[in-house]
Amino acid sequence: MVEESDLPKLAYLDMVIKESFRLHPVAPLLVPHESIDDVTVNGYFIPKKSRLLVNTWSMGRNPKIWSSNAEEFFPERFKDRKIDLRGHDFELISFGTGRRGCPGMQLALISMRLILAQLAHCFDWELPDGMLPNELDMTEKFGLTLPRANHLLAKPTYHLIA
Ligand code: HEM
Questions:
Q1: Of 89, 94, 107, which Cα lies nearest the Cα of 24?
Q2: Per residue in 143-158, pLDDT tens?
Q3: Is the CB of 87 under 6 A from ligand 1?
Q4: 37-54: per-residue pLDDT in tens?
Q5: In whole angstroms, what separates CA 105 from the centre of its chain?
Q6: Candidate of 56, 95, 97, 116 to mutate for ligand 1, largest count of ligand atoms within 8 Å of Cβ
Q7: Is 19 exposed, middle or buried (0-12, 13-18, 19+ CB in 10 A)?
Q8: Cα(41) to centroid of ligand 1, in Å?
Q9: Does the beta carbon of 17 sit less than 6 angstroms from any atom of ligand 1?
Q10: 103 C-alpha to center of ligand 1: Å?
Q11: DSSP structure string for the chain
């Protein structure tokens, strides 16, 4: 079984999680914030008391940030880029950033890594009816959160010998 102490060694899993958040952020517009003062950011004047939505969905698909293959699921793009999910790298702020960033981030990241690592370690996975991965319907249902529009169906086969 995968233990929590194994997680630091699972570099590719981390890249897969980042890539999943980049293309399919849980909160596509984060949570609305309000500016407490007049401020100018990058030449744009934002008056006090404006409602601010940060479109992480569009940031995650911006070719200026992620190059021309921005729409492609390609975890290796993180191999030589020191981008983490902790809110320091503004290209990828799936958990928000700053003092109102997600306080559950650490719990969420550890749980996700553990669950995904166990699922990959214990089972072989197949799509139903010989479907190929690139035929999978990845349509999203937009809202405050961004679930799949259609359920994911996948067939596990247990492959660990007792
Ligand atoms: C995949 C898992 C999760 C994701 C992607 C996520 C993402 C987010 C995002 C984007 C925000 C808004 C940040 C901002 O607007 O700057 C947020 C806020 C928050 N999250 Fe999470 N979250 C996750 C899991 C959790 C868990 C496990 C907990 C609690 C155990 C949690 C508790 C909170 C709370 C309390 C806030 C509001 C913080 C505030 O307004 O000061 N989240 N989260």
A1: 94
A2: 999 999 999 999 999 9
A3: no
A4: 999 999 999 999 999 999
A5: 12
A6: 95
A7: buried
A8: 24
A9: no
A10: 6
A11: ---GGGGGG-HHHHHHHHHHHHHS-SSTT-S-EE-SS-EEETTEEE-TT-EE---HHHHHT-HHHH-TTTTS--GGGGTT----SSSSSTT--TT--GGGS-TTHHHHHHHHHHHHHHHHHHEEEE-GGG--GGGS---B--SSS--BSS----EEEE----
List, in sequence order, every residue forming a beta bridge with 39; answer none if it has no partner.
46
Residue 122 assigned to a binding site: no
- Find where tokens 């290796």 sit: 76
Task: Identify whether the C-beta of residue 109 lies closer than 8 Å to the C-beta of residue 119.
Answer: no
- Is pTM beyond 0.90? Reply is yes
Q: What is the ipTM of this complex?
A: 0.98
Question: Contact at 8 Å (CB) between 91 and 82?
Answer: no
Other beta carbons less than 10 A from residue 85's beta carbon: 19
Distance 61 CA to ligand 1 centre (A): 22
